[in-house]
Amino acid sequence: MISTPTALSIAQELLRCPSVTPADAGALGVLETLLKAAGFEVHRVTFSEVGTADIDNLYARIGTSAPHICFAGHTDVVPPGDDGAWTHGAFDGEVADGLLYGRGAVDMKGGIACAVAATLDYLAANGGQPQQSGKGSISFLITGDEEDVAVNGTVKLLQWAAERGEQFDHCIVGEPSNVEAIGDTIKIGRRGSQSGVLIVDGTQGHVAYPHRAANPVPDIARLITALNDEPLDAGSAQFQPSNLEFTSVDVGNPATNVIPAQARAKFNIRFNDHHTQETLRALVDQRLAAACGNRIRARIEWLPSNADVFVTKPGAFTDLVSASIAEVTGRTPDLNTGGGTSDARFIAKYCPVVEFGLVGQTMHQIDERTPVSDLDKLTAIYRGVLERYFA
Ligand SMILES: [Zn+2]
């Protein structure tokens, strides 16, 4: 059998490309070469938008039919910070004491390297195709635009893929999902995020003649209390309760003898799968209207958001990933929906998606690093996923 490259060697090659967002610095070329040699059809797709840098992305697929599993991720990284503070160079790909150092080691060149190594190894053992029957597809959806503005990355790449008829059945995003040890956490979803501004209109006037004015300050206090006091829900099977959090109250009034014309309060809602952005906005608008009655003049200005809630319900696919994790690590992963947002929320519009990668502890830090043994474990887990998926 031909020996395939290890996750470590692929990760080192990727780390040596200083692909600080939005630069690519050759990182996608490393993947292109490896995947082409294994028989993948590889597309390099560049997206541009006025005011942002042109971004290179990669889509590669082997096989033409279902079932189709996709590995998704990004090769751009955050800046290294103070270069001199690194124990081993941020872009040297050095291994010391069993640890691989470098910006992107865990977020997430290491994860991509494991997915590629696992796939190449799996294909080599299977006559070069996902299934002996010739059925099945494996793809890689890799963007160079995740860490910063992310306008020329995953969203556009998914649209591009959909337009050419690509259909994904399942997706794994190799973001560092684990908290303490590899195998402890699979992210199966994330809460949605929606911000807004509560605006209460009054009538400006002199404090000595309050009957000629309408003071929005006590009214905004009443409305904040009303919106805060009533829970949005009691949580769901996969999520904690949704939370509305006021973050500021602004009147902008430097005077003590003037009743202000308007008061504003900013807030953010982290919401679960009891809501969509539309139903959530409608619910809060309706509660506001009830709290205002006929007297208070208030409205909410909803801020644009593309962070809708998503969840991949526990089932056959999460079972298969969990089984592979248990086989390699002996751990039963927590199926978690906590934390902030990631590109998985965009992929969730196309197919069930989970996030599972390395341990996130050192991501975005000086001396970002991963044990080489974790790379081996993650590669074995991904390989186990492929075996089970195509069995
Ligand atoms: Zn990342």
UniProtKB/TrEMBL annotation:
Biological processes annotated in GO: diaminopimelate biosynthetic process; L-arginine biosynthetic process; lysine biosynthetic process via diaminopimelate
InterPro entries for this protein: Bact_exopeptidase_dim_dom, DapE_proteobac, Peptidase_M20, Peptidase_M20_dimer, Peptidase_M20A
Cofactor(s) needed for function: Zn(2+); Co(2+)
Coiled-coil region: none
Annotated catalysed reactions: N-succinyl-(2S,6S)-2,6-diaminopimelate + H2O = (2S,6S)-2,6-diaminopimelate + succinate
Annotated binding of Zn(2+) 1, by residue: H74, D107, E175
Keywords annotated in UniProt: Amino-acid biosynthesis, Cobalt, Diaminopimelate biosynthesis, Hydrolase, Lysine biosynthesis, Metal-binding, Zinc
One Pfam family in the UniProt entry: M20_dimer
Cofactor binding mode and count: Binds 2 Zn(2+) or Co(2+) ions per subunit.
EC numbers, comma separated: 3.5.1.18
Domain Peptidase M20 dimerisation: 188-292
Residues forming the catalytic site: D76, E146
Gene Ontology molecular functions: acetylornithine deacetylase activity; cobalt ion binding; succinyl-diaminopimelate desuccinylase activity; zinc ion binding
Pathway(s) annotated for this protein in UniProt: Amino-acid biosynthesis; L-lysine biosynthesis via DAP pathway; LL-2,6-diaminopimelate from (S)-tetrahydrodipicolinate (succinylase route): step 3/3
Family, as annotated: Belongs to the peptidase M20A family. DapE subfamily.
HAMAP family, per database record: DapE (MF_01690)
Task of the protein: Catalyzes the hydrolysis of N-succinyl-L,L-diaminopimelic acid (SDAP), forming succinate and LL-2,6-diaminopimelate (DAP), an intermediate involved in the bacterial biosynthesis of lysine and meso-diaminopimelic acid, an essential component of bacterial cell walls.
PANTHER family, A to Z: ACETYLORNITHINE DEACETYLASE, N-ACETYL-L-CITRULLINE DEACETYLASE
Annotated NCBIfam families: dapE_proteo, PRK13009.1
UniProt subunit comment: Homodimer.
Protein name, per record: Succinyl-diaminopimelate desuccinylase
Biological source species: Rhodopseudomonas pentothenatexigens
